[in-house]
Amino acid sequence: MEPLAWRYRPNSLDEFIGQEHLVGRSGPIRRFIEEGYIPSMIFWGPPGVGKTTLAYILAKTLNYEFFTLSAVMDGKAKLKKILQQAQKLKAQGKRSVLFIDEIHRWSKAQQDALLPFVESGLITLIGATTENPGFTVISPLLSRCHVFVFKPLPAGQIKKRLQEVAKKEGVKLSDKAASVMAEYADGDVRVALNVLEFVLNAYGKDIEMTPKLISQVLAQKLRYDRGGENHYNLISAVHKSLRASDPLAASYYIMRMLEAGEDPLYIARRLLRFASEDVGNAKPAALLLALAAYDACERVGMPECAIFLIQTAMYLAEAPKDNSAFDMEVFTKYLVRKYGNLPVPLHFRNAPVDLLKKLGYGKGYKYDHDFKDKKSGQQTLPDKLHKLLKGKDKPWKGWGSKLFGGENEQKEYS
Fold first, then answer.
1. Backbone angles phi, psi at 342, to 5 degrees
2. Are 355 and 134 in contact (CB under 8 A)?
3. Hey, what domains does the chain have and what are their CATH numbers?
4. Which of 76, 311, 354, 377 has a C-alpha 20 to 30 A away from that of 6?
5. How would you label 123-140 residue by residue, b for 16+ Cβ within 10 Å and e otherwise?
6. What are phi and psi of 240, to 5 degrees?
7. Segment 181-205, tens digit of pLDDT
8. How many C-beta neighbours within 10 Å does residue 352 have?
9. Phi-psi map region of 394: left, alpha, beta (phi>0 left; psi -120 to 50 alpha)
């Protein structure tokens, strides 16, 4: 059976979700449809946002023959066959669209082969790419195509599509569970539908999809156990003893781990982490000492390297403490996971090629060194975060203790 995402792929512009700036009432691609003409185009954007689907809908709506090539799988041989078919169709008064997925993967020579046929109008080219076409598509081809930027789909639209598909499949999907899946998808509707399909295959259609169930499914995809409970209890005791400024306790737990056969580099990695997380900028030299201890352990090995770990642990335990870097780490991770891949402000983007300049990249950027106090005051965060955090002084402060009390986060670095 075909994958869920394929079975429920939109077949018309009315079913298509997202990209309102392109297909909305005043969008350029909608105007092409109204005028009955498709120019050659490059669709640039992340996966799962409708590039292939929209190309198919365009061709179907205007009765163009739709040919597809995968730049990963196909080459000039298949292109030649398609061009021959397009030539026959043209003789019959029919028009052809050639859709090339991941066109950035084609070499310069392969892209060059398209030029005369795009120029003559034998084919209308629609290339899809996740990479910057200013760097990956040859200039002669780029000059013959309109470039359209696709955006990640809003979670609300992904949620709506999930609910529509679940209803058609006869599955109970709660509103909150759909929200969890939509947020996890991070702008890619295909990811969300794949999660839905995974749950259907694993539990059947009779299961009620709750937020708890969806969270468990997503957690299972990420679960990875490095050791037993005692392993984590001991490394937790090391870290918390250091945080409590107790050199004896920290050294005791380190020695217990070493005597049990623990890899000294595992402990050295935790000391490196502690040097930034709990000592931080109160004493930046702590990180240098922890790094030197790691290097020394790697060079010397057990049993001699135990003293390097003990020396470093004593230093870290007695050092002044500052967890502001950890607060910032946790806070920014929260922002990234909650709000996804927000667009970088246009004035902060690099514009090494003319295409990007035309799209507004770099326009209005202020060079901070030109200001007396070296502060331009320009917007630095994406629009959504700029509005959310504007006027708030050090909004990251306290997030290290707010989220998990810090300890669960540390397992990622163990």
1. -70, 145
2. yes
3. 18-149 (3.40.50.300), 155-222 (1.10.8.60), 229-318 (1.20.272.10), 334-413 (no CATH)
4. 76
5. bbbbbbbbeebbebbbee
6. -75, -30
7. 898 888 889 888 988 988 888 888 8
8. 12
9. left
